Amino acid sequence: MTKVLVTGGCGFIGTNLLKYILENKPDWKVVNLDLLTYAGNLENTIGLEDAYPGRYSFIRADIADPAGVNEVFRAHKFDLVMNLAAESHVDRSIEDAGIFIRTNVLGVQVLLDAAIRNKVKRFLHVSTDEVYGSLGSQGSFREDLPLAPNSPYSASKAAADLLVRAYIKTYGLDAVITRCSNNYGPYQFPEKLIPLMVVNAYHDKELPVYGDGKNVRDWIYVEDHCRGIVLVAEKGKCGEIYNMGGDAEKENIEIVRSILAYLKKGEELIRYVKDRPGHDFRYAMDFSKIQAALDWSPRVDFTSGIKNTIDWYLENTPWWNRILSGDYQDYYERMYGQR
Ligand code: NAD
Ligand code: DAU
Questions:
Q1: Mean of the pLDDT values across residues 270-281?
Q2: What is the CATH number of the domain that holds 170?
Q3: Atom number, ligand 1, closest to the C-alpha of residue 178
Q4: Number of independent structural domains in the chain
Q5: 78 confidence band (pLDDT: 50, 70, 90)
Q6: Tens digits of residue pLDDT in 29-64
Q7: Residue range 291-321, pLDDT digits in tens
């Protein structure tokens, strides 16, 4: 059995990754380490211990707590660490950068130290396309571009990428980095564009579109990203960075309109609001490196992926109703009340 640590497994991508691994890698035994912040939901992983006996367990811990992390590493002797734990929402990083630095930078350093000390065979760090900054209407991000992050979130992710590089060079850690574009799919917290718009439209509530709605993101179905993460963990070359993208560039307003159309709601629900400060205009990924090296490319096209996603939210109203009834109300009021 390969002993694997997934951090952040109760978040959006982490939940999907755990399910992907348990279904597709029968000789992997996984520990999910998650602090259960506002974005971590233990409900997402209910039933995994029973469905995969002896192959899944959960530990509540903070990646930025060296004592707790070391204890877990000592006890489990991981072969592979996959780090997804992070503060992930750009708007929250603009409100308060501190927790982003603590989790996304200090937390990564703590994990890297534990990996060295406990002789982990491979460390996979999940980064993001946002470390490259923003594109104009032409071109795409390649792995050899300089880092040019524009938000506290993306700056914290870029700092972590540099720490991973330093641990490879200085301590000989075997590590790889993935950088992916915007994910969508089941279990995404409804503060992010797609689930927020689905949930608001469902309730006939206004859909807040930042600026003129013409900012562009490249959308990848979360399962394609998870397949790529596992592939890079297994076959990626130490020290390399691998981009992933969905080959589905869309203006935000296009996404919002397609959600309204699928839910048969009128466009009068759209409300243009004050733009996000430092709002990156466009992201687009050149993923030819992982295509050539590891034969990866996205399989789910946007039309079917967005249908699956909206259907999942429609079939799982109790999941997001529980989120909406908690602290999320205060966040929504702070973020959108005066906008
Ligand atoms: P998310 O916010 O949905 O989940 C983050 C998870 O990390 C939560 O379960 C949370 O409880 C946990 N966590 C936060 N702080 C922690 C700490 N100190 N210790 C342990 N656990 C902690 O995030 P996501 O969208 O699933 O993103 C996962 C990773 O993928 C992040 O590193 C993010 O930067 C990266 N990423 C996300 C996207 C995307 O579109 N969502 C795209 C590219 C890369
Ligand atoms: O590109 C990868 C990144 O994608 C990840 O690293 C981040 O963790 C993830 O949150 C995501 O960042 P974005 O800022 O691109 O995602 P978000 O869903 O917050 O916003 C997508 C676009 O939609 C962006 O241009 C801002 C816009 N938007 C967002 C919200 C929440 C709106 O117009 N209205 C909104 O209410």
A1: 98
A2: 3.40.50.720
A3: 44
A4: 1
A5: very high
A6: 999 999 999 999 999 999 999 999 999 999 999 999
A7: 999 999 999 999 999 999 999 999 999 999 9
* Catalytic residue list: 129-130, 153
Give percent of the chain above pLDDT 90. 96
The minimum-distance atom of ligand 2 relative to the CA of 216 is 25
The yes-or-no verdict on residue 326 having pLDDT over 90 is: no
Pick from 38, 79, 40, 39: which is nearest to 58 by CA?
Answer: 40
Residue ranges making up the domain that contains 305: 2-273+281-336
Residue whose token pair is 């998650």? 34
Q: How far is the CA of 12 from the centre of ligand 1 (A)?
A: 7
Ligand 1 centroid – CA 266 distance (Å): 33
**pTM of the entire predicted model:** 0.98
Tell me which long-range contacts 271-275 makes (C-beta under 8 A, separation of at least 24).
Answer: 271/206, 271/207, 271/208, 271/209, 272/209, 272/211, 272/212, 272/213, 273/208, 273/209, 273/210, 273/336, 273/339, 274/210, 274/339, 275/210, 275/211
> 224: CA distance to ligand 1 center in Å?
17
Altogether, the residues listed in the chain come to a count of: 339
